[in-house]
Structure formats: structure tokens, C-alpha cells
Predict the structure.
Amino acid sequence: MPTLNQLIRQGREEKRRTDRTRASDQCPLKQGVRPRVPTRTPKKPNSAPRKIAKVRLRNRHDIFAHIPGEGHNSQEHSIVLIRGGKVKDSPGVKSHFIRGVKDLLGIPDRRKGRSKYGVEKPKSR
């Protein structure tokens, strides 16, 4: 416990907050290359394997990102675009891939929520 005189001379140091978005440099989207493509099981009550990929961003940060939707064509060393967004049941995963941009294709034959999964409007007959 500091004395009153020590507090007057030096004061208290404010606790530093950790920056949750340090890999993104405060940018909404970041481009990166994916070195490997593992799957990971989620936290306790859930069990379906999540498609998660390690991504090396242009600013040399390595992060894990989630690939949304059913199925993907992404391979090692493909170029992808990343947005923010936490995956609740996967610890350490704080970003998502953007589908239908760069090397990651959209989901074929998707009708609902198309903008999230990079699908163009189907041709009407």
C-alpha cells in the first residue's frame, strides 16, 4: 500500500485495456492468405465441427477466422477477405471470411440471406 506522499508524487497508473481488434488495425475488412485449413470442435454443449482457417493478414498478423455457410472451395494459400465478428462457441475466433470475394466462392443454390454468402440473384423465368 503506497503512502499518501508517494501517491502525491507518482499517482496511480491506469490499467491498460487490451485491444480486441489489434490484428485488423481498426479496418472493417482485411485481406490475407490462408496457410492451413483445420476444423475445430466448439465449446461444451455444441458438437458440430466448425470450419476454421488460419489467416496471415497483409500486416503480418496471424488470426483464426470462421468460414460461414455449408461447404467451401478454399484451399491452402488462397487469398481471402476477412471481416469482424466473434464465433460464440469457438474460443479465439474473432473474425469471419467474406464469401463470394477473391478466391472463396459463394454458396451455390442459396435463396435466403444471399448477401451474407456471396450469391447473386437467381434468374427469374
Summary: Strands lie at 29-36, 39-40, 50-57, 62-66, 79-84, 95-97.
